[in-house]
Design goal:
Blueprint (H helix, E strand, L loop, with lengths): L2 H65 L2 H5 L2 H11 L6 E6 L4 E4 L16 H8 L5 E2 L3 E2 L5 E11 L2 E11 L4 H6 L7 E5 L5 E4 L3 H4 L6 H9 L3 E6 L5 E8 L6 E7 H35 L2 H15 L12 H79 L3 H24 L11 E3 L1 H7 L1 H7 L4 E7 L6 E3 L1 H18 L4 E12 L8 E10 L6 H4 L19 H11 L3 E7 L3 E9 L23 E5 L3 H13 L3 E5 L2 H9 L6 E5 L8 H11 L5 E5 L12 E4 L4 H14 L1
Parallel strand pairs: 13-15, 19-20, 19-21, 21-22, 22-23
Antiparallel strand pairs: 1-2, 1-6, 3-5, 4-5, 5-6, 7-8, 7-11, 9-10, 10-11, 12-14, 15-16, 16-18, 17-18
Helix pairs in contact: 1-8, 9-10, 10-11, 10-17, 14-16
């Protein structure tokens, strides 16, 4: 027998079992692919049910937020009606308040005090009797008098540990349609949200036609039998479908996804056919490779030897298929190994260069921060002492103004007040390089803040210099020190004016930006305030030191070198950053990035009218280490009617309170000698005497007064403001 025949028999002995194994593998793949597809759809349905739960929880969250309204707690139904009406759905919905007895108290569909509409059509009362009324309830679908399908979400409102009201929101069922459309199900799939009774609440396609209809009988029986599962039947449109459903947690609704039965079979069949074709092709190639290997057995081995030499020399190995599975696998690994070695070498070089650059940037940022920190400590200490002096002058002048009726004396007092105001602005500038002061923070609209400074900025520019304001609509609010914001804009405008001696154009723009995080800054939502001039620009050597304190290119006496550093310090203290770009002849752009604030805008305080000092009552424990401040403020508080007890330090105040001192409110400075600062005192009182109100005052501090319910006054404060604040807290107590 010829050797060729023997080889053929050997090949057939190998291939016949391989063909049988391939056929079994194709069948196994078909079954597994079918199971995998079903499991995938089941997971999709479970996730879909969780999305429906999340959508219902959003409505529940609105009601819980409304339930915590102070107006409702105080029984101010008219104010609560306005609040509820502002939060009610814009179209086809309403918020209704019921008493614990079930009586309707108000309805946002009608004005307050008007006759209330007829009782609701939802089955909330039935659910309350079945599941209990002290939990969130979601009704089944019902049709309102206007023919619109709705459902109701109800939450209990607890006051003093008991259910006092029930708050419910009527929601248009079409609201859930957007949830279905966002899921981007395949074209032939159908998705349905059904209530406990099996009525269609939302449907991916032909929603208006089938909303309110019951799902098929088979689906209803499956819903009644189990929380999740499968169902095979014709859908409402008469198409044979294979469906998967799951129960929405906590609410009892059903989320169901159905797929045409022919599509369920098509994907596994296609996968199995594709796998069979590949296996057949591989078997054919194996026969050809075996014959070719018999003729060229030595060539691949020589090829591997040459590849090993290239790899040893550090050069990339070019892969050329040899037709032998094992040798080709080794050759591919050798080629990939050579490429990985070269890539690793290039990556190592790149990382070394990047590490060096990052180190240089970090060193530069560290030096800049150390410079500003040192300057901030110096100016902050000066500002703290100066503010104590200003507080004494402010209080004394206000008391003098209230006790004197001589016009000449009043004129002199007004002059002194204006001087104190200028000194206060000066201390604020001194504190611009220190840490951010909580008492001066405000949440503002950056566009309004910029537009409010236009008149001041125009007065700074020379004749021939144009100012343009370009603030986008809908700017996000930011939490900053408004005075430092204005001061930063003023400093940048002065720098731009000096860079445009012959006139030019200054553009101040503000935009919302969402940034991705990098190695040097965090990501998130920011408002970018850009100040761009058409001036002479800065060369690289000047640009490298432009943010250094006291660095200036101006002649002695013409500049302090604190303009750009103040803007840099403002951006950093506001949890943002400043970016500076400039080129000779191309002008300069300063970008200040301020993080978006989630707090509501701070209301502007109206100026107090009249000259009479407001009256107060109750005992005030006044904690202040500066004797001049104590003398002036105690006089003002006593004139207003308070009984004032004085402590010279936080340690002394704590000892007095622990000794049984009875007081209605504590008013304390923050920075004091001893072991207990004002912030420490407030924190200790929250633990030992949680009902005692605490007000803090500061001229400057490195500490952050982040205590809920503790108000902070900035020195120098108005005595009328202090009396009104303490009087209100003492009355509440």
């Amino acid at each position: 027998m010829r050797i060729r025949t023997r080889l053929l028999i050997l090949i057939l002995a190998i291939l016949v079992p391989a063909f049988l194994a391939a056929a079994l593998a194709v069948g196994y793949v078909y079954v597994e692919e079918r199971h995998a597809q079903e499991n995938s759809v089941k997971e999709t349905v479970r996730a879909f049910a969780l999305l429906v739960e999340n959508e219902l929880e959003n409505t529940e969250g609105i009601l819980h937020t409304l339930a915590r309204s102070p107006a409702l707690a105080e029984g101010d139904m008219e104010e609560f009606h306005r609040h509820a009406r502002a939060m009610a759905p814009l179209r086809d919905g309403a918020i209704v308040l019921h008493a614990a007895s079930g009586a309707r108290l108000l309805d946002t569909r009608v004005p307050f005090g008007s006759a209330l509409p007829a009782r609701r059509l939802a089955n909330i009362d039935t659910l309350a009797r079945r599941d209990g009324a002290d939990r969130t309830l979601v009704s089944d679908l019902f049709t309102g008098p206007d023919g619109i399908h709705r459902f109701v979400v109800q939450v209990p409102v607890r006051l003093d540990g008991r259910v006092a009201y029930y708050l419910s929101m009527s929601v248009n069922a079409a609201k859930l349609q957007a949830l279905l459309e966002r899921q981007r199900f395949p074209e032939r799939w159908q998705a349905v949200i059904a209530d406990r009774q099996g009525r269609v609440v939302a449907r991916l396609r032909e929603a208006e036609k089938f909303r309110g209809h019951l799902v098929g009988d088979q689906a209803l029986r499956s819903f009644a039998a189990q929380q999740e599962g499968t169902v095979s039947a014709n859908n409402l449109a008469g198409i044979p479908m294979h469906g998967f459903f799951s129960t929405v947690p906590d609410y009892g609704w059903r989320a169901m996804v159905t797929i045409p039965q022919d599509e369920m079979r098509r994907v596994p069949l296609y996968t199995a056919s594709f796998l069979g074709a590949i296996m057949t092709l591989l078997l054919v190639l194996a026969v050809a490779g075996a014959r070719w290997f018999g003729q060229r057995a030595a060539a691949p081995i020589e090829y591997l030897g040459r590849g090993a030499e290239e790899l040893g020399a550090g050069r990339e190995v070019a892969y050329t298929p040899q037709g032998v599975l094992e040798i080709d696998a080794v050759a591919r690994r050798m080629a990939e190994a050579s490429r990985q070695i070269l890539r690793a070498q290039a990556e190592m070089e790149r990382r070394v260069a990047e590490a060096v650059a990052n180190s240089e940037r970090a060193q530069s940022a560290l030096l800049q921060g150390q410079k500003l920190e040192a300057l901030g400590r110096l100016t902050g200490g000066i500002a703290h002492e100066f503010n104590n002096l200003l507080q004494t002058l402010t209080t004394a002048l206000q008391i003098a103004a209230l006790t004197s009726n001589q016009p000449k004396v009043q004129t002199l007092i007004d002059t002194c007040k204006r001087t104190v105001g200028r000194a206060t602005a000066l201390t604020t500038r001194l504190g611009s390089f220190g840490r951010l002061q909580d008492a001066r923070l405000a949440t503002v609209d950056p566009g309004e803040q910029i537009r409010g400074s236009v008149q001041l900025l125009r007065g700074v520019l020379r004749q021939g210099g144009g100012l343009e304001i370009d603030c986008a609509d809908g700017l996000w609010p930011v939490t900053v020190d408004p005075l430092q914001f204005d001061l930063a804009l003023l400093n940048l405008t002065i720098n731009a004016r000096d860079a445009m001696p012959g006139g030019g154009r200054l553009v101040i723009a503000a935009r919302n930006e969402t940034l991705e995080p990098t190695t040097t800054r965090p990501g998130g939502d920011y408002v970018r305030v850009s100040v761009t001039d058409t001036g002479s620009g800065m060369p690289p050597e000047v640009l490298a030191h432009a943010l250094d304190p006291f660095f200036t290119t101006k002649a002695p006496g013409e500049g302090t070198g604190l303009g750009l550093p103040q803007a840099y310090a403002f951006a950093t203290q506001s949890q943002g950053w400043l970016a500076l770009t400039s080129a000779v002849g191309a002008g300069t752009t300063v970008d200040v990035y301020l993080p978006r604030s989630r707090q509501p805008l701070t209301p502007q305080q109206a100026a107090r009218q009249g000259t009479a000092l407001p009256r107060g009552a109750g005992r005030v424990l006044f904690v202040e280490d500066d004797p001049l401040v104590r003398e002036a403020v105690v006089r003002g508080l006593e004139d207003a009617g308070f009984d004032v007890v004085v402590a010279a330090s936080g340690d002394a105040a704590l000892a007095m309170l622990d000794g049984g001192l009875d007081t209605d409110v504590v008013f304390s400075d923050i920075v004091m000698p001893g072991q207990v600062s004002g912030i420490d005192l407030a924190a200790l009182l929250r633990e030992r005497r949680p009902g005692l109100p605490v007000v803090l005052a500061t001229g400057y501090t490195d500490q952050r007064a982040a205590l809920p319910g503790v108000q902070v006054l900035s020195k120098p404060y108005e005595i009328e403001q202090l009396v009104a604040l303490l009087g209100g807290l003492a009355t509440k107590e």
